[in-house]
């Protein structure tokens, strides 16, 4: 290779052009089941949290059709968006392993002293219900690993209701791991400590990295045994059950719409879509004849932005099925995700995803695939003119994605304006990182911590380990020269200002798998100290923190981390 002889944007150019399938024709089915819902009778045997001042409401039930059948037995559900479903409490003793003070205070308006109340653990794990709560399981479908999978739905989650906080924000509270629902298929409705610690820590960490995401209030663990086959090799082991209470402005997914189109329930489709637009896309006029096109263009734009954001922090989601993609373009459903360590566009966080369908470098393409499926779901509601407008909008997705990717990586390198060579400098750096296996997070961080003159001298201390790895590349100096040239072309800038800017966006700490695994091992023995330390550290990922440094969170990953096989126990 010569120093300019590499494919620009290897990491992020592979966005195929959009194609559309026209095969499906859908017919209108008979109208959906509208049922008067009598909230007063609800579940006579339910215990309510009397002492926790959090009252939930249920716009969703008022606005959207509900399953006529009651009970948690597994079935094919028709004509509705939700089924009532009562959580099955985990067996006591239960331990409150972690709480997000930020969610408690700033989303739920609660005083931190509520966690001392004996009732709290029950309320956040499905043993008791918040006043006003009517637990629901959502019916959705989806494309999994490229294929239509039919009815899926919340198989182990319960939507408790909505809370409107004093800022006027509306949040939906959901339990995950809270027992069977009509959508459990062959599952047991449970989640284990392993996946619950990961979801709790990572959704909060993503928020503090500035990436749109669901949030998590609490993590409760039990002694209840749950059987799992973590490596899909027939080796069934007992793990312990856990419940996370998670929150989002909305939990609707692409698959929420897809199932209604597939089954021809077009009235329900229109009702749901109108509801989502009215509640969550407030700038779209409800009487706009093109509102579905405008809605689609918003989702296309925001999805492109979200995935570019994932890439900028090295995040691979791991299961980008259409039922794991939010209509609000927030990150949801933390499963076999991973933060890339050594830079590798083929990084696949799910060790069983042998084809690498959801590798980090494939995410932009998978986003496009999912948006195509969204458009197919909207199609019966569009005129042919609106359909072709929407197809045109989708063709712009690669450009929106590249633009955003470019802006984010420019900022990561401290560039201020449009430097003539900036794209080249970004692509060149990624290529050096790929060749040397330099650590993604720490290369950018350490670039923000060294001065330009240190860089130019090439005197990189071994303790600056990621940059030191990078500097072993034969073209490192050429890259530095180009980089410095770009930076110096902005006369008003100073090196200190550059470092400051870069340190504000290049994290020093991300949730690496080895850190999560270590915290999980301790959690399984009821030691939650490392969960607490990670939680605290990841709330301020851009700040150097003594305790985190002592724990090695910014050090070269232990060599065992390279071989670590991540269990897919969920
Ligand atoms: C929380 O509640 C405690 C006890 O009721 C009270 O002493 C404290 O001032 C409250 N804190 C805040 C921030 O409101
Ligand atoms: C696209 O989404 C981003 C991120 O939410 C937003 O800042 C931007 O204004 C949107 N652009 C358009 C054209 O809607
Ligand atoms: C993603 O969706 C699948 C259904 O396709 C569901 O089984 C799984 O739990 C979801 N993933 C996560 C991590 O929640
Ligand atoms: C990991 O990938 C395999 C193979 O595609 C898939 O069957 C499995 O469901 C994935 N695991 C998770 C947790 O998504
Ligand atoms: C861009 O790179 C070329 C080739 O390395 C160089 O000649 C030119 O001066 C650079 N431009 C700027 C503004 O740094």
From TrEMBL:
Its Gene Ontology molecular function terms?
A: ATP binding; metal ion binding; nucleotidyltransferase activity
State the UniProt keywords alphabetically.
ATP-binding, Magnesium, Metal-binding, Nucleotide-binding, Nucleotidyltransferase, Signal, Transferase
Q: Which residues constitute the signal peptide according to the record?
A: 1-18
Q: Where is this region: Disordered?
A: 548-570
InterPro entries, per this entry?
SelO
The cofactor named in the record is: Mg(2+)
Which Pfam family name is an example for this entry? SelO
Q: What is this protein called?
A: Selenoprotein O
- Origin species, per record, is Culter alburnus (Topmouth culter)
């Amino acid at each position: 290779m010569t120093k300019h002889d590499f494919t620009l944007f290897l990491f992020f150019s592979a966005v195929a052009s959009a194609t559309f399938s026209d095969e499906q024709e859908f017919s209108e089915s008979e109208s959906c089941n509208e049922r008067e819902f009598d909230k007063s009778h609800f579940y006579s045997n339910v215990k309510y949290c009397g002492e926790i001042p959090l009252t939930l409401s249920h716009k969703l039930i008022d606005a959207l059709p509900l399953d006529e059948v009651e009970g948690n037995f597994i079935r094919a559900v028709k004509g509705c968006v939700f089924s009532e479903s009562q959580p099955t409490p985990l067996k006591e003793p239960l331990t409150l392993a972690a709480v997000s003070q930020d969610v408690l205070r700033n989303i739920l308006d609660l005083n931190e002293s509520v966690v001392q109340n004996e009732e709290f653990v029950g309320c956040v794990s499905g043993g008791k219900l918040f006043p006003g709560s009517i637990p629901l399981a959502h019916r959705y479908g989806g494309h999994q690993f490229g294929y239509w999978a039919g009815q899926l739905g919340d198989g182990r989650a319960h939507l408790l209701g909505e809370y409107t906080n004093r800022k006027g924000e509306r949040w939906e509270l959901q339990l995950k791991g809270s027992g069977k629902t009509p959508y459990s298929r062959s599952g047991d409705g449970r989640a284990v400590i392993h996946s619950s610690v990961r979801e709790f820590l990572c959704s909060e960490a993503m928020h503090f990295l500035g990436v749109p995401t669901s949030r998590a209030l609490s993590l409760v663990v039990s002694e209840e045994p749950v059987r799992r086959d973590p490596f899909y090799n027939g080796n069934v082991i007992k793990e312990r059950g856990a419940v996370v209470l998670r929150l989002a402005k909305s939990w609707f997914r692409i698959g929420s719409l897809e199932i209604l189109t597939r089954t021809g329930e077009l009235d329900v489709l229109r009702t749901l879509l109108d509801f989502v637009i009215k509640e969550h896309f407030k700038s779209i006029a409800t009487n706009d004849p093109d509102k579905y096109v405008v809605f689609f263009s918003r989702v296309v734009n925001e999805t492109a932005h979200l995935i570019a954001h994932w890439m900028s922090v090295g995040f691979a989601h791991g299961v980008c099925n259409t039922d794991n993609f939010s209509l609000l373009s927030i990150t949801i459903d933390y499963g076999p995700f991973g933060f890339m360590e050594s830079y590798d566009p083929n990084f696949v966080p799910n060790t069983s995803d042998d084809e690498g369908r959801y590798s980090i470098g494939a995410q932009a393409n998978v986003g496009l695939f999912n948006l195509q499926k969204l458009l197919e779901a909207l199609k019966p509601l569009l005129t042919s003119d609106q359909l072709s407008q929407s197809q045109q909008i989708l063709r712009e997705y690669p450009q929106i994605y590249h633009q955003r990717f470019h802006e984010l990586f420019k900022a990561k390198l401290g560039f201020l304006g449009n430097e003539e060579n900036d794209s080249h400098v970004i692509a060149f750096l990624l290529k050096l990182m790929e060749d040397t296996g330099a650590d993604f997070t720490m290369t950018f961080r350490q670039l923000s911590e060294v001065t330009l003159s240190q860089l130019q001298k090439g005197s990189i201390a071994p303790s600056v380990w990621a940059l030191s790895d990078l500097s072993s590349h034969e073209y490192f100096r050429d890259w530095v020269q180009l980089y410095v040239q770009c930076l110096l072309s902005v006369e008003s800038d100073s090196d200190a200002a550059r470092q400051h800017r870069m340190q504000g966006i290049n994290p020093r700490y991300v949730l690496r798998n080895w850190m999560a695994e270590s915290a999980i091992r301790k959690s399984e023995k009821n030691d939650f100290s490392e969960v607490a330390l990670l939680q605290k550290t990841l709330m301020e990922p851009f700040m150097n923190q003594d305790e985190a440094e002592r724990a090695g969170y910014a050090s070269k990953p232990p060599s065992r981390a390279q071989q670590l096989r991540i269990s897919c126990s969920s």
